[in-house]
Amino acid sequence: MSAILILEQVLNGIQFGVMLFLMAAGLTLIFGVMGLINLAHGSLYMVGAFAAAAVAGATGSFLLALIAALAAAALAGAVIEMVVIRRLYASAHLDQVLATFALILVFSEGTRWVFGSFPLFLDIPDVLAGPVTLPGGIEYPLYRLTLIAIGLAIAAGLWWLIERTRIGIQIRAGENDREMIAALGVDISRLYTLIFALGAALAGLAGALVGAIQSVQVGMGEPVLILAFVVIVIGGIGSIKGAFIGAILVGLTDTLGGVFLPPLFKLFMEPSAATQTGSALSSMLIYLLMSLVLIWRPTGLFGARA
Amino acid sequence: MKKLILATTALALGASLASAEVKVGMITTLSGGGAGLGIDVRDGFMLAIGQSGRDDIEVVIEDDQRKPDIAVQLADKMIQSERVDVLTGIIWSNLAMAVVPSATAQGKFYLSPNAGPSALAGKGCHQNYFNVAWQNDNLHEAAGAYANSAGYKNSFILAPNYPAGQDALTGYKRQFGGAFAGEVFTKLGQTDYAAEIAQIRASGADSVFFFLPGGMGISFLKQYADSGVDIPVVGPAFSFDQGILQAVGDAALGVVNTSQWNKDIENPTNAAFVESFQAEYGRLPSLYASQGFDTANLLISAIEKADVSDADAFRAALKAAEFDSTRGDFSFGSNHHPVQTIYAREVVQEAGVFTNKIIGVALENHSDVYAADCKM
Q1: Which positions in chain B touch A117 (Cβ < 8 Å)?
Q2: Is there a contact between B116 and B337 (Cβ–Cβ < 8 Å)?
Q3: Do B222 and A214 make contact, defined as CB atoms within 8 angstroms?
Q4: What is the pTM of this model?
Q5: How far apart are CA B175 and CA B173, in angstroms?
Q6: Checking CA distances to B215, which of A190, B146, B185, B313 falls within 20 to 30 Å?
Q7: CATH of domain A3-296
C-alpha cells in the first residue's frame, strides 16, 4: 500500500470526521446545556438535506440550497423546542427519549408525505465537481476538500462563539447552573430555543452538504445520529472541543480501520475469510474505541461530569 | 351471516365452478427508507387486479415497516383472523425468511414478488412457495456473464457485509471467468465510499462489480462519478431501478446493469403494462412494479383454473404459470423459481428522464444452482 493511498485515506477520514462534528456539535450543546437527549437530531439533518434538494431543484443554485437548509432546519428546531421539547426539561431521560423518538417517526412520515417515497436528487455544484491534483500526486475530489474547509471554519466559528461572545458566556453558564443564570436575569427559555435552533441549523447544514454526495432519502439521519452519539460520548458530553476531537478520532478510526484491517487479517488467514472478518471487526472498531476511552476516562476525553 | 349463506351456496354448487372469493394478504414495506420498493410492488399488483375486472379477489394490504417482527405479527394476524388464502408482498429476504416457512407450513400459498433467498430455493423449498421474481443470485450471475462477454479480465468487487451481499459476490464469482483485483465488504447502510473508491483507483482493476441496493448505490455512484476514476462499472438492477435513477442523475449514465425485466422488452403485455401503469400512477414502472404485476396475473391465472380450497389443483394451476408475463415467456423450474432470460441494460436519458435500455442478453433461460437441492 503506497504512501499516497494512505494519505488519501487519512484525508477521507478527516472529511468524514469533520461532517460528524457538525452533527455532534449540536447534539453535545443540547445535551450539555439543557440535559436533553435529542434523538430527533437526525431528523433535522434529513430536513436540511430535503430542503436543500427541493430548493436546488427549483432554482439550480447550490448556495441558495445551503441557505434554505440552514433556515429550514433552524426553524424546525425552534418549533419543536417550543412545542415539544420545552415540556421535557424536567422529565426523566426515558420520557425525553420516548418523545424525541416519536418526533423521528413524525418527521420521517411527514417528509415522505410531502416529498414522496423515492430519493431526491441533489448534486455537487459544477464549480466544485471533479477531482483536483494535490501536491504529491494525490487526486482528490475538490468537493470533499471544500467539506473539510467548511467544517474547520465552522469549528473555529463555534469556538469563537462559545469562548469570546456574550451568548457563549451565557451558554457556558447555563451548563454549570441554570437556576443561577435565570436568577441573574437571562431569559433562559429564549436561550434554550436559540441553542436548539443553532444545533439544528448545524445538523441541517451537514445534511445538505453530505446530501450532495449521498442519497437524500427518508431515514438518512438515523445512522449518522448513532455515530454522533458515539462522538459525544468519546469527547465528553457538553464539550465542543471534545466533540471536535472525538469526531476526527471516529472518522479516522472508521475509515482507516475499514481499509487496513482486511489486509492485516490476510497475513494469517485465508483471503475471503479475512475480508469478512476484517470488515466485521472494522465496523466494531469505533465502539471498541469508545469502550477504551470510557475505561480510561469515564466522563469522556474532555467531559466535566459523568 | 350473509357470507356464510353465500359460502354454503357455493359449496352446494360444487367447487368446479371456482367462484369462491379469494382472500389475499399483502405484507410489504410502505413506510421508512425502503418504502419505494413496496409501493411499486403494491401498485403493480393492484393494477393487474383492477385490470382483471374481477370482484371475487379481496386484497388486504399491511405495512411491515421493513421489520421482521412486525412482518411475523402481520402474517399471524392475516392467517388466523383474516383467514387469507394466499400471502404475498414481502420485499426483503430477512423478512421472507421470518414469514414464509411458517406460512407455507400452515398450508397457505406464498407468492414472492421480490425476495428470493437461497435457503428457500434449495433445501428449504416448499410446494406452496412460488417465487415470481428471481432467486437472489440470478442478477449477480448475469452481471458476471456480462463482464465475460465485455472482455473484462480483472474485477474489483464490493457488496455490504450481510447475507444478500455475500450471495451477490458469490453469484458474480460463479460466472465471472477473470481475476479479482480486490474484494471488499462494506458496512450495511454505509453512505460514504471514499475509502473504497481510493482502493479501486489503486487496484489496477479493469472493471468494478458492485451490489449496493437503494440509497447505498446512489451514494456510491455519485461519489464514484465525482472521484474521476473511469473504470467501467457493472451491477444488478437494484441500484438502477426507475425509482432511484433520478436521484443518481448523470452519474449513472452509460452504466450497464442486469435485469430480468425492462420497459422495452417487446411483447404486447409489457407494452400495455408500461402504458397503463404510467396512466394510472403518473410515473414509469420499475422492475419491482413489473414483479408485482406478474405476481397478480399469475394468481389470477390460477384462480381461473382452480378453486383455492382445492390446494392440489390450485398448486398445479400456479405451477403451470399460464399467464401473460411482462417478461414474455415465463415458466417455473422444479423448485418453483423462474427459469428466465436476464438482460444487460444501459442507463440512458430519454426526454430528460433517466431510464434503462436493453443492450443484450446476459444469460438465457437461466435457473439457479439451488434447484438440485430442492426435494418436494
Answers
A1: 35-36, 39, 243
A2: yes
A3: yes
A4: 0.85
A5: 5
A6: B146
A7: 1.10.3470
